[in-house]
Structure formats: C-alpha cells, structure tokens
Design goal:
Bound molecules: zinc ion
Number of helices: 11
Keywords: Metal-binding, Zinc
Oligomer: single chain
Protein name: Tagatose-bisphosphate aldolase
CATH superfamily: Aldolase class I
InterPro entries: Aldolase_TIM, Class_II_FBP_aldolase, FBA_II
Number of domains: 1
Pfam family, one: F_bP_aldolase
GO molecular function, one term: aldehyde-lyase activity
Largest sheet: 8 strands, parallel, barrel
Number of strands: 10
Distance between the termini: 25 Å
CATH architecture: Alpha-Beta Barrel
C-alpha cells in the first residue's frame, strides 16, 4: 500500500482532496469506508479524537481499520485527530495508527514547536511513512451544533509563523485557521477567507494544507479552498447529526425495536449518504 503522503501528493497535483471522517463505533467506520470506496475516492482518512479513541479503544480502532483495508482492498488511513500530548500520540502510533495530528495550538508558539518536533522525531523513528500534522492558529468551536462562535482574523494562522513552524518541526501537514471553526453554527454564516489562505500557501508551499471544521461550510467555500490548495478536508459534526437523526427516525417509526443491527443500519445509511456527497465534492475538477 502507498503511504498517506503519496495520496496527498496526488491530490495536490490533481487539485482534489482526500476526505477525513471521524468515527467512534465500528458500524460508522465501515459505512465511511464503503461509501468512500463506492464514490470512487482513491483513499480515505478515518479519524478518532481522543474522546472517540477512549470510547472505541486505540488498539481496536487500529485493528478495525486494518481489517477493512484488507476486506475492501482499499487504502484506509487511521488518524489520531487532535491528540494533545506526546504520550497520547505515542500510544496511538504504538497501537498502529497511520497518522497523527499533534494539536498543541493552544500552547505558546515555542512550546507548540517543541512538542510537535518531539512527536515528529518519534514517528520518524518508528516508520517514515507515518504522516504528521501540526496545528497553528486558534481553531474555535467543538464538533457539535452550536448557536454562535466569535471568529476573529486575529485567530488566523499567520503566514510567516506557519513557515517558521514547518521549518522547525518538519511536519508533513498543517492544520490552519482562515475562517473555519469546529462544528456547526446555527445563528451565523461560516465563511472561509480564501485570500488569507492564498497568502499562507504563497509564503510556505511545502506542507499539505488541511481544512478542519468543514461541517457547516458551503460547498462553494470547500470547492474554492481545494482549488487554492487544500488537500484534505475534515468532516465530523455532519456525520454525527446524520447518525443521530437516523437512529431517532427508527425509534420514532418503531419504538419497540430492540435489535441493534436493525436500528443502527438505517443510521449508517444516512452517514454513508453524507460521506458520498462530500467525496463527490472533493473529486470535482
Ligand atoms: Zn479538527
């Protein structure tokens, strides 16, 4: 199997993007992989936050990703999504994760660089194919439905700081902030500042740039970001909402249903619809 960085490089050349979708249960993971493959994606990234990983188990997540890769003959890359400490990153890598996001963006810049470099060095010593993402800028919100989140250009990743960060850490990928927030907001429009992203990529073209918090963004904004050089887009909240509403619908229609695969399967179908729609958007030329 080719490495994740290989697929990101391919996406960069084609001006397309890989999808990154979160899961906390085996049914949703399978649904993501099936939908991505059926929609014609070259590969898919699946991720667990620390909370999601605590629920399903790091080793279990790695074993499931490996099993699906084999069963479907399809490149599935498992990512530790926004892991906050060196120890958690190390645990994920030792469990068999293919990719890490060390998110030390809440720390002062110097400490962010030191911690990120420590994770990069560890990953490289284990396997040079592991892809590592750092984060710079203040990405607000969490993966849920929220009313309003203040977004200020002072939170944006600064081009010169991104360049310095990449040089000092040697990360493969960068999570940056240019108007994006985590989760969905209901009382305001979420809007990307594409011009700001252009400035970042002009100053520092080396890493693969990652768009987090794409749930709630318009297709036009996601399309524009990919055209400008985003090679990987993260969706979580839209999948969570689809799953929850799918389950809700089953119990509304059949309140007495007690067979898990009968009340979960329709919810997974709803998740698959979201994944397929996003993959088509990422593959547009
Ligand atoms: Zn994220």
């Amino acid at each position: 199997m080719e490495s994740l960085n290989y697929y990101l490089q391919q996406a960069r050349q084609l001006h397309t993007a890989l999808g990154h979708f979160n899961f906390a249960t085996a049914d949703v993971l399978r649904g993501i992989v099936e939908a991505a493959k059926d929609a014609g994606a070259p590969a898919v990234m699946v991720g667990t936050s620390e909370g999601e990983a605590d629920f399903i188990g790091l080793k279990e997540a790695a074993a499931l990703a490996r099993a699906l890769r084999e069963e479907y003959g399809f490149p599935v890359f498992l990512n530790a999504d926004h892991f906050k400490s060196f120890d958690k990153c190390k645990e994920a890598i030792n469990a068999g994760y293919d990719s890490i996001i060390i998110d030390a963006s809440k720390l002062p810049n110097k400490e962010n660089i030191t911690l990120t470099k420590q994770v990069v060095d560890y990953c490289r010593s284990v396997n040079p194919d592991i892809s590592i993402e750092g984060e710079l800028g203040y990405l607000r919100g969490s993966s849920e439905v929220q009313a309003k989140i203040e977004i200020s250009p002072t939170d944006y990743s600064k081009p010169e700081e991104v360049a310095d960060f990449v040089s000092r850490t040697g990360v493969d990928r960068m999570a940056i902030v240019f108007g994006n927030i985590h989760g969905i907001v209901t009382d305001q429009e979420e809007k990307l500042d594409i011009e700001h992203f252009s400035k970042i990529i002009a100053v520092e073209p080396r890493p693969y740039y990652i768009l987090h918090g794409a749930s709630g963004l318009s297709d036009d904004d996601v399309r524009a970001a990919i055209k400008e050089g985003i090679t990987n887009v993260h969706f979580n909240t839209e999948l969570r909402v689809a799953y929850k509403e799918g389950i809700h619908q089953v119990f509304h229609d059949k309140p007495g249903e007690t067979t898990p695969y009968k009340y979960l399967a329709p919810a997974v179908e709803e998740v698959k619809k979201v994944v397929a729609k996003k993959i088509h958007l990422f593959m547009e030329k």
